[in-house]
Amino acid sequence: MNRLSVNLGVLVAIGVLWSAPALVASISSGYLSAVYLSGGAAQAEEGKKETRKVPAMRERTYKTLSEAQVLIDPDSVQVEEGQEKPNIVADPRKAITILNDLRERRGVNSYELAQIWNTLAFAYYTLDDIPNTLSAYEEVLKQEITEALEMSTLRSLFQLYYSREEYKKAISYMDRWEALRGEPDAGVTFIRATAYYQMEDFKNALKEAKKVEEITLAEGKEMKENWWYLQVVIYNELKDVDNTIKVLEKLIVHFPKKQYWMHLAGMYSEKSLDDRSLSAYYAAYSQGFFEKENEIVMLAQRLLNAEVPFEAARILEKGVKDKVVKKDEKNLKLLATAYTMSQDVSKAIDAWRDVAKTSKEGENYFRLAQALANEDRHKEAIAAYQDALDAGVKKEISNVYFWLGISQMQLENWDAATKAFREAAKDEDKEKSARRYIKYIAGEKMRQEELRKMLSGN
C-alpha cells in the first residue's frame, strides 16, 4: 500500500488518483479531440492562441486512422438518427498492425506520424500495455504537432506516470504542460504536490500545496476539500501543530466533517488547549457525528472533568435511551456520578440503584446510601448502608459505618447509631469523630431521659 493510500485516504475518495476508467476517459478524450483533424483544422480549433504550422493530414491517412479507431473503440462509430450501429467486434491488436503498417509507408509527414502514434497509444492502453502506451505518447512529442495535441499528450503522460508511481517523471511532464499552458493550474499543481508528498519531499509538497491556494484565491474561486486537507497532512508530517490547527480551522468552516473535528480536537489537546478541544468534540457531537458508545462516553467523561456535569448527564441519558450506550456498570456509574455532580438527586438515586443492582458491589450500595441520605431518606439509606456491609465493602468500611451512624442518629436510633460509631472508631482516621458522636449520643440520651422524667412528674 503506497503512502497516499495510507495517509490521504480522503483524497483518493474525492478523486485524486486516476482510476482505470478515468484514465481511459481522459486518454480517449485527448485522442478524439485531434486525431481526425487536419493540420489547418486543428489550428482553427485551437483559436487565436495557436501559431504553429503543421503539415496537413491527407485523405488516405485519415481513412486508415478511421479504420483503426473503429477497431479500437467500435462505440465511437457515428450513425445518423434512426440508423443502427454496425456490429463491429473490438480488435485493438489488428488496429496496431494496421497503424504500424501505416507508419512504415513512404511519404508519411510528421503530423500524420504524430496522429498514428497518438492512436497507437490509445490502442496499447486498451490492452493495458502501459510501457508501449508511454513510448507511443513520447513519440508523439517528437513530431510536428499542434499545441492542443502536445497539451493532451503531456497530460496523458503525467497521468500515466503518476498512476505507475513514477513521480519524478510525472512531475517533469506536469512542468512541461504548465510551461506550454503559460499559467499555473490549481488542479495540476495539487497533483504535483501529492507527487512530492509521495516521494517524502515534504518541503516541496508544502510549497506546491500552498501554491494551489494562491492560484485559487487569485482566480476568485473556492478551495476544494482535498486541496485544504493536503496541507493538513503535510503539516502533520512536518510536526507543525500550529499550522495544522490553522488549516483545520479553515477546513471545518467549509467542510465540517467528523474526521476534521476529531483531528482538530486532538491538535488542541496536543497544545494543552483543553477548552477548545472539548468544544471541538462537542461540536462534532452536536452535528450528529457521534454514533458509537465509546465516543459518547468519552465526551461525557471530558465534560465531567471540565465540571460540566449537567451536559454530561444529558448526553449519557440520551445515549442510553437511544440504545447506543449500554446500561452496564461502568456507564451507569458514570451517569450516576454526573447526576450527583449536577445535583439532580432524584435521578442520581435511581442511577445508583441501577448500578448497585447491576454489580452487587458494596461500594455502589454505599454511593446509593449517600445519595438517599442527602435527600433525608434515612430509612432507605440505612437499608442501603446495610446492603453495602452485606456485600462485603472493603475500601470504605469505616466510612460506611460512620455514615450509617449518622443516618441512625437522624432517626434517633441511639443504640444502633452508637454501635455503628463504635465500628467506625476502629479506624484511626475516624476514631476521633466517631467518639465525639458517641459522647454526643450519650448526652442526648441522658437529656431526653431527664426530659421524660420531668414531663411524667417522676
Folded structure, characterized:
The chain has helices at 3-7, 9-14, 20-34, 39-46, 59-72, 92-103, 110-126, 130-140, 147-163, 167-181, 186-198, 202-218, 225-237, 241-254, 258-270, 274-286, 293-305, 309-321, 329-341, 345-359, 362-374, 378-390, 397-410, 414-424, 428-456. The protein is mostly helical. It has a domain at 360-458: Serine Threonine Protein Phosphatase 5, Tetratricopeptide repeat (Alpha Horseshoe), CATH 1.25.40.10. The protein is rod-shaped.
Tell me the Rg in angstroms. 40 Å
Oligomer: single chain
Helix and strand run:
HHHHHHHHHHHHHHHHHHHHHHHHH
Strand portion, in percent? under 5%
Number of helices: 25
Terminus-to-terminus distance? 98 Å
Query: Tally of extended strands?
Result: 0
CATH architecture of one domain: Alpha Horseshoe
Q: What's the CATH H-level superfamily name of one domain? A: Tetratricopeptide repeat domain
CATH class of one domain: Mainly Alpha
Main pleated-sheet profile = none
Low-confidence stretches: 1-22, 32-48
Q: Which secondary-structure class do the elements indicate? A: mainly alpha
Percent of residues in helices comes to over 70%
Q: Give average pLDDT, whole number.
A: 87
The dominant shape is: rod-shaped
**CATH topology description of one domain:** Serine Threonine Protein Phosphatase 5, Tetratricopeptide repeat
